[in-house]
Amino acid sequence: MRIATAHRSIPGALCALVLCIVVVASAPAVAAPTTPEIEAKRAAAASAQADLDRMNDELEVRVEEYNAITEALEQTRAEIRETQALLEAARRQLTAASDQLARRATSIYKDGGTGMLDVLLGTRSFQDLIVRVDLAVRINRQDAALVASVKDAKVRVETTERALQTREAEQTSLRGQAEARREQIEAAIAEQEAYVATLDKEIKRLVAEEQERQRRLAEERARQAAAAAAAYRSAGRTAAEPSELGPGHPEVVPIALSYLGVPYVWGGSSPAGFDCSGLCQYVYASIGIGLPRTSRSQYTVGQHIARDRLDLLVPGDLVFFGTDGDPGQIHHVGVYVGDGNYLHAPQQGEVVRVSSLVERIERRADYVGASRL
Description:
This protein has helices spanning 2-26, 36-109, 116-121, 126-233, 252-257, 276-285, 295-299, 357-364, and strands at residues 269-270, 273-274, 303-305, 318-322, 330-338, 341-344, 353-356, 367-372.
């Protein structure tokens, strides 16, 4: 009864495997696919984006330069306004000083309605005349010095104003140049952004094409898996229930590993040279278990583990391979050593080595299952 149940479970497991493959093939990929062409485009896009980032950095520098020049220009214009106010004040002071000089001269030479002759004739003594003349000269000199000082201040303010106006003209020119550079960089950035967008669009197109190619490939693999499942059902082996599997023989693994590097010899079954089935027969004989000579015969020995139950494999299990995954065309066998790897004597010109079982399944899809002795 257990055998019959196990036999009925094989098609169900295989159908589940095929269904899983079909679902995976039709589901959207989590990670974007890649090809050398896509990677080259991505590298070009990354380089273009880096250039765009540098251009944006340069634009920020130029904008800051423009802002600094604008700030300096505004400061200069504020100083010009202040200088113009000072100049206007100096002009008023000059007018006031000149008027004062004229008024004082008039008051010396003319007191009320009295003329200069009256002033001179009105002196009581020669000493009084000397004093009056000396006073007039002193007042005249003082007011003249005041006028001269105001004139000098006015000249200095006018000189400052001209210098500020020259600086304003230079800063206005510099700001115009900065504005022109900013516009040039903005135009270059717009062009670079368009280039980056074109690359991104091209990458999306290539990724979509690769996704479609992989989808078709997955569908083809699902078809092949379905065909292999049909071939598996016709192979006549019944998978053991997981709970019924024995512990296996992991002790054979160190023995098998000791023959790493032994050359492949067609028909070889000794440490002088092995073929695939000769290696398995020899290492199992070293722990007292006899095996048939060929891989096809060895496939019929022990408890069978279905190809979709890699999780059940333990070190020491024999793993088998058939053309296009057909159990009726088994041509290769190896010893499972754990972690998804197996030891085998590959082919003429090579040596005994460890290979990835998972990688072989993905690359060649010729794995047909395992046997536990």
